[in-house]
């Protein structure tokens, strides 16, 4: 770009973007945000910005970042946004305005093929099904010719191709510089390319995974980028918490045993050593099943988070864990005694030691700054023991805000409401932003007063009323007939979703789709293709999906999206705030639910041409003191309580 080009000249009605992009739309809200991002790049510091739907926030931070010339990381929460930036937004900017800029994307290690592990797997393959085995020939051919090792190239592989776990470049199975294929390593190549980038695109999980590794003294990729922009920044607290805690997963133990057994097939090892390793692995496999069984017996509800309190667990659980720990330690000693001193055996021994240490830490629970919890699946080895920081703010303050010259936190949902004004206090407290962090609230340019309405039927049963689901199904039936389908029904629980779906699926004269019946990508495709369809879904559909136009005219929400009060992380944080004399409900639970509700509403109006109705079946928003906070956090639009009062132009089929 020519010298002297400014952000204002870029976004002006007759500016650089307007001259270079056909049908470019000048948006004053986008200019405001871009100017604020440019200022923070120029001055250094921190900026929080809520940019409503339709602002064009992606261009509003990409252009200043590129103009600044500063090496910048762009971190997103969802793959949908990452793909949009890489496939749509950046190609336009780079091709037409910043041809010299080097842009790279980086994915997690498990997206890349590991040449060493693939060679070992090919020597002794094992598959979950004949269908998987039938694809191995094509996979072998792809592995021989790929230049990147990126799984996305092999788009013919099913999403749940189990054998990929045996050949991927997982961190705990990496031999690093001691690997015989290190010079051709796809992960290493991708990171070297990333280090040379001016703009690096990745997701929050990879950002914090990389940051924790670098904090332990391994690598310096992120430290070479002085600026970071977190888009979808409302997810930063939850994602960061996963990486600054501890995790012991049953399947990592199963993976370890599989790798030990596979490694024994190659070297010429003593028979006694082989026998001891095989016996240890068999013993560990049985004990993993036993630990899973004991955990499952402690809770009737799988697939949700449970507080992990060893003191409340039966003696049979402690006995199984103790035996598992001893068996892992014994395997580590056996591996240490191997006559082979190769990096592979050293790596396997290190993995054993790491698992023993994590198991000790998680069962001892000696850190008062962590909350301990577990998740369990229906079958072994599907369980995870975890420890998550109660407060992520001091960690982010030290490891992100204090070390980066420029940090931008952007989202369509960062602000709540205090005294009828947008407030960033909740996000400030949760993320530990500097006191001088700047704030900008940019409302959506859409005309919600004419494009949308909020329908809260009254009178209506409360969510804890046994009649609630039946009443909700009956009202939804009337609404969907009025809108001719074209509805996204968002739920806060699977129980409500399945019950309401059961009550409506056979009655509705439209195609009915339900989360869990098909992959998310296929459900969305069918929902968009058939504009009269209805989609029932839970939290994974509350954000990150874009259905503009006729296919979506009505978003229905069962109840205010408060987190389950006995969720271990929520319960621990509420407890901590209450002990400090704070009103945890208003300082933590309400703001989180407000941001989630705003995300759900954000699915409805995606363009100036869109129109529709938000339906909320939770009358607490009208009867409880906290209800006004939710209502004031939504854009101004008509509120109606009778179906026949809905503006006809919002629900009519064009």
UniProtKB/TrEMBL annotation:
Q: Which PROSITE patterns match?
A: HELICASE_ATP_BIND_2 (PS51193)
Gene Ontology MF terms in the entry? ATP binding; DNA helicase activity; hydrolase activity, acting on acid anhydrides, in phosphorus-containing anhydrides; nucleic acid binding
Which Gene3D superfamilies does this UniProt record tie to the protein?
Answer: P-loop containing nucleotide triphosphate hydrolases (3.40.50.300)
Coiled-coil regions listed in the entry? none
* GO terms classed as biological process: DNA repair
- Show the stretches that span the lipid bilayer: none
Domain Helicase ATP-binding as annotated: residue spans: 16-281
Q: Which UniProt keywords apply?
A: ATP-binding, Helicase, Hydrolase, Nucleotide-binding
Concerning SUPFAM superfamilies, the annotation shows: P-loop containing nucleoside triphosphate hydrolases (SSF52540)
Q: Which family does it belong to?
A: Belongs to the helicase family. DinG subfamily.
Q: Which PANTHER family match?
A: DNA REPAIR DEAD HELICASE RAD3/XP-D SUBFAMILY MEMBER (PTHR11472), REGULATOR OF TELOMERE ELONGATION HELICASE 1 (PTHR11472:SF34)
User: What name has this protein been given in UniProt?
Assistant: ATP-dependent DNA helicase
Q: State the taxonomy lineage.
A: Bacteria, Pseudomonadati, Thermodesulfobacteriota, Syntrophobacteria, Syntrophobacterales
